[in-house]
Design brief:
With about 200 residues, the protein is an alpha+beta fold. The protein has five helices and seven strands; from the N terminus they run ββαβββββαααα.
Length: about 200
Amino acid sequence: MDEIGLFPLGIVLLPSEHVPLHIFEPRYRELIAECLEEQQEFGLIYADGDGVREVGTRARVIDVLEEFSDGRLNVVVEGGARFRVERLTRGRSFLTAVVVPAPDGYERADPDTATRACESFRALAALAGAELDELDETASQLSFELAAQVELPSDAKQELLELDEEQHRLELVIGLLDTVREALLAVRELGEHAKTNGSRRPQTS
């Protein structure tokens, strides 16, 4: 068990994901300053109208983009290991908790599922015109590596974060990537349809 500072936000940080944060509240400026000084991690945990979730991601600051005279910061954080909150603790201006590592399944994911996930990712990247780095289909957390590169709804990312088996995570990622691709295709088709309608000559009687 380990006690860490928590940063509840309306976003989900996945392992390996890089996210920019604007730190402005005094309590969280204190948390981030302490983490920078002592080279510690903090816990980023999803919070919305339903409350704070039990599964979050360890985060570390990898870059300080800007420091303002009033103490505000623009930083970039990187997602690390998943954790589960055992109990909240008191004594600091910011939220703290005793956490334990979230278990990860010991069964290897089906290689065919990993291949399908990479194919879905490549198809989406091609449609979006994005440059693609080499994908390692044997990566132990391929699901997170793929999902971290796509803009997904926070609820979907939290669902992914809470899954312990990589096989289940890959299956979810395939569905999410295909949904994003279908939505992008629909938007493009709608745009083309609108252009066609706009180019018609007015009818005369």
